[in-house]
Amino acid sequence: MKTTVSFSHIALIAFLVGVVFSPDQSSASYLTGSSSDQKPYLLAQVDPDEAYDPFTDYSEFDEESDEEADINFFRNGRFFTIGLAGGTRGFTGNFADAYGSGPTFGIFLSYFFDLRLALSLGFQTGDHGVGFTVNNGSKTYTGNVSLTAINFDLKYYLNTQNVTRGLADLNPYLLAGLGQFYRTYTISGLDGFSRDSTMGFDVGAGLEIPLMRKKAYLGIQAAYHYVNFSDENKSFIDGTEKLDKNLAGDFYDFLVILGMNF
What we know:
CATH class of the domain at 79-261: Mainly Beta
Strand order of the largest sheet: 1-2-3-4-5-6-7-10
CATH topology of the domain at 79-261: Porin
Distance between the termini: 113 Å
Order of helices and strands: HHHEHEEEEEEEEE
Strand content: over 45%
Number of helices: 4
CATH architecture of the domain at 79-261: Beta Barrel
Shape: elongated
Largest sheet: 8 strands, antiparallel, barrel
Structural class: alpha+beta
Helix content: 10-25%
């Protein structure tokens, strides 16, 4: 039995083979997502500069210099210091004629913002002999005057990294700030006590020498205190007797400070 294959059968078979093995242009473009001149497959590309990991890339520092400064502070810096001070206090102007120089003692607490800047809170007190004349020397008053100061100062430590090795460990600083000053008179021949207070300004400088592997320090400080008490440049005492010299001036002190670093 013979099988007859017509021309229509051959044309149908050729058409099916062309469809299977030769997909049209729109299908290729859909698979590749691009024009016909591209290869019919996808490529995955990753740019390492655009990759971001919120866990490994997090940093609280905006710049590397900030991070380096903080590491240096935690390794070599101090958080706060406390020191006991003792020294001498002197006076200027007419105060130098009426008040005698004398010892002064105090305590200082400093909080460090970084390696260079610190806020200092100080308490300082001392007693001094006092003597002044009235009515052209016809009468002399003597006694004691007590001066107490509470100081709020900013201390700026100078950079010593570029000096010689022996001086690099020293910590020189400048200070400036405000003070509240209290004065109490005890005068023979006058009843009771005379108390007054005033605000003033502080300026000074100092030097700290590390001790005990930088756990303690020995400091030297000089400060000038500008004050203006209420009776300065007044000519009378007790309202009736005229002073031969008006009480006016400022005072300064030289201190030795022994402190601990924390």
